[in-house]
Design brief:
By secondary structure, the protein is an alpha/beta fold. The chain has a single domain, classed as TIM Barrel, CATH 3.20.20.150. The protein has helices at 8-11, 16-25, 50-63, 81-101, 117-138, 155-163, 179-182, 189-196, 241-250, 277-292; strands spanning 2-6, 30-33, 66-72, 105-109, 141-145, 170-175, 200-205, 257-258, 262-263, 265-268. Helix 4 (81-101) packs parallel to helix 5 and helix 8 (189-196) runs parallel beside helix 9. It is globular and about 45 Å long.
Length: 295
Amino acid sequence: MKIAFDVDVLAKQMSINDMVHQVADWGYKYIEQSPHPRINPFYKHPLFSRETEAEYRRALKETGVEISSFIVVYRWSGPTEEQRLHAVANWKKIVEIAVNMGVQVINTELSGDPNQPEICNGMWFRSMDELLPLFEKEGIRVEVQSHPYDFCELNDETCDMVKSYRSDALKYCYSASHGFFYDKGKGDVRHMLKYAGDDLSHILLADTMNQTVDCRYIVNPPGVSMAIHQHTAMGEGEVDFPGIFETLREMNFKDRTFKVGGESITCVSYFGYPERMDRQAPEALERIKRELGVK
């Protein structure tokens, strides 16, 4: 199992070189490269100039850190065909970049419109039908996660969509901080992880409050944003992390290896508090190792 750190909280604060060195200083061997304005920006076409690639490769070589995975967010579920076509083109470019960088895993979202679920569902399957042969040909494991305010927020339904392709190149990513959206506030992490079953290849760890409980988040006017959630340190919210770690041990998640993309991935996905990361990032790494029996 690879233990990675999502560098979103760093990318806004520092250069690529400093970002990679910081992750290494915290003891991590792997980076999960979330959307970055010079590499894989949200919704837009990937960039990654020669200069950016050279800076990144140099920092990786200096530290011994590796990229476990890219995160991309493209509107491959539309709802318009023009958006979908742009997203498919973006996907083809990020696969090219991943292959060039030796990265075998791309973590993504459905990225549709919750107000048009039927159209977005059809658009996603159309995009998958077009892109899956490319993923399989290039040996890229694409991992889909549900996300708040998407056309499908539910764990079990998204798992069913992934499983319907029966492909070694398509797996499921579980995000702990989205879990209360995944089952409408129950937070039954044991069920959700077990439902993903053998297709669970990636887990994102961060805490949040249960947005379905009255006044956990106060918005004005009430109800304007039901997609509110957080990515805080484990223990700062209401996610059942003892249940998550117990279930991952039962599933022997740390020893999973997949035909495409290799090892399973556990990623620390803390956002929003860079001033706390010098303490929280190493603590998260140590807890994951302790809970899952990783040396």
